[in-house]
Amino acid sequence: MSKNVTIKDIAKLAGVAPSTVSRVVTGRPGVGDEMRAKIWQLIKEHNYRPNSVARSLVKRRLETIGILVPRGRTAFFENPFFADVLMGATEAAAQENFDVLVYTGSREKKGARVLQERKVDGLLAVGLREDDASIPLIKEELTTVFVNRQIKDAAWVSVDNKEGVSKAVAHLIELGHRQIGFIGGPEKMEISELRKAGYLDAHRKFGLAVRPEYMAAGNFDEESGYAAATKILNSNPRPTAIFAANDLMAIGALKAAKNLSLVVPDDLSLCGFDNIHSSSHTDPPLSTVKLPAFQMGQLACQLLLQLIRGEEPEARQLLLPTELIVRQSSGKVGE
Amino acid sequence: MSKNVTIKDIAKLAGVAPSTVSRVVTGRPGVGDEMRAKIWQLIKEHNYRPNSVARSLVKRRLETIGILVPRGRTAFFENPFFADVLMGATEAAAQENFDVLVYTGSREKKGARVLQERKVDGLLAVGLREDDASIPLIKEELTTVFVNRQIKDAAWVSVDNKEGVSKAVAHLIELGHRQIGFIGGPEKMEISELRKAGYLDAHRKFGLAVRPEYMAAGNFDEESGYAAATKILNSNPRPTAIFAANDLMAIGALKAAKNLSLVVPDDLSLCGFDNIHSSSHTDPPLSTVKLPAFQMGQLACQLLLQLIRGEEPEARQLLLPTELIVRQSSGKVGE
DNA sequence: CTCTAAAAAGCAAACGTTTGCGCATTTCCT
DNA sequence: AGGAAATGCGCAAACGTTTGCTTTTTAGAG
Q1: Cβ(A332)–Cβ(A297) below 8 Å
Q2: Residue at the smallest CA–C1' distance to nucleotide D15
Q3: Which pLDDT score, from 0 to 100, does residue A78 have?
């Protein structure tokens, strides 16, 4: 591997000063047409590519953003959400010639790392737990946009959880269901609260009473969905539909229903949340609520880039709508 | 945001030269104990963090690797493979204080980008199509490790596809099946050939004849699996088992079987490949072959780091074993 | 032709580190 | 006590760009 060709080499070959070469590669004025052409020629010929590090040093701009993603089964692994956000972000970044550095690993460490290294101009923090200790540090030290977390007076793009589940529960009500179970997430998590609020909201809107015995809490995995559904389905009268606060729990509920010899959707309608891949491969395929993950990544990244440039964005906080996806797990009551 | 504190600031405060401060932050010898302590003290106090860009400039080392991932439905979106590889890679990288830059987007562009920018010391290219035009360029310009592609005289870590499907088909044979269908991938793709070879291999090993009418090619998506299975299941005699070259096609085959009122596994055993998330959520859950994706990411990254450092790795090409996962879609013949 | 203004190109100082070399000062050995 | 060896630290040159300022060249007007 021979020494890399630098701007000085090109300058020497062209018989000009490095500054002139710099002006042509960056497309700034102040150099004549023929010289410009000659230099481009030499650049191609010798395959010169500017050293981004040297450039970053003087411009004090890395042209790189970081993305903090959680690690662990529930997060990245079962759910396309993070992958989609990542894709959206890298695409939006590439649009403006920025690159994306991925930080993951145990949550104490990755927060520290990104701060320690100073290799990014800004940060996308996706799905951080609200009690994460690194949040205050990060918020203060780095221009940051949070994804899917609504952190007070920070910049974020999130999704309207409450409206999303409200819409889904309304869908069940409109199918004629009057006894609708609810499998929620762990208490005291913001996201659990919002989704429960959506469930209650839909009931209020339609003038339906909610019954405590129809509500149970899981912890977002399949087993807890199975357990919660089993419990709810033993109520009397048995509900004719169940909404689960995520797909994994809905899948658990589906298994519980089968275990009780209930056929879905004839005996029981089911609806989940997240639109994970598996939801379209269950039998029957699961009705659910889809999050605009890719778009969230895009918008978050665009917002971040604006903040990095010091521009004033139209809004520092974006709440995006969800989309209800009706498949075969939800049907009219009593058919 | 005030000006960042530099090594000179610390030097001035400590009353020493920048070189001395440098020596303490990098832990090199040549500075006395009390001065060392004093400087650490000042560093903490003023929250000094070395500028990685300046450091990279002089050391000619970015401490960053790139990872090229394909984009598109079949790839990242349905399959945890890429996410897992990414995780394994970032973890291994972090171990050695390297970071990971993600390149994605249309395949012509991302290859050009990574070369143009020169922001990485090396590259992990995962799941590139073998006819990708950027392969020769990349291989030549950057130290690269290919993941899941066995490129002649390049460094790679891949998985033993042939042995994997051979193992799975042997599993079906051992369950008593003698008529076993095969749904392959598109012709002329390396991966399709290897998997087909595994199917043939298992037959040879057990002295079973293969029947052309039991074999059909899909293109790795669900619909093509459905079509191929339908075709195969119309053979006479009808096979009692089908192996599909990936899970998505196996899921299609499952639907085709249901459509023909065949019950799995009683009337038909089914086995896939990849172990995507959905495979454990179908009804019945799908037997399949699991790829050590996380480990592949790890090993590939470790190999890459060795190459970057100029060390001689024990092996430049690694072929990892798969794991057969038996679920309920495969059972003894005729029960 | 001359004068002037605009265009083209050069100069040199930054950006924040690392590192080889050299000079004091201390420590050790006999 | 004398010299040698070891230690502690400073100096300054890199690393490869960008950019404000100055100088030179060119072109156009009178």
Answers
A1: no
A2: B58
A3: 61
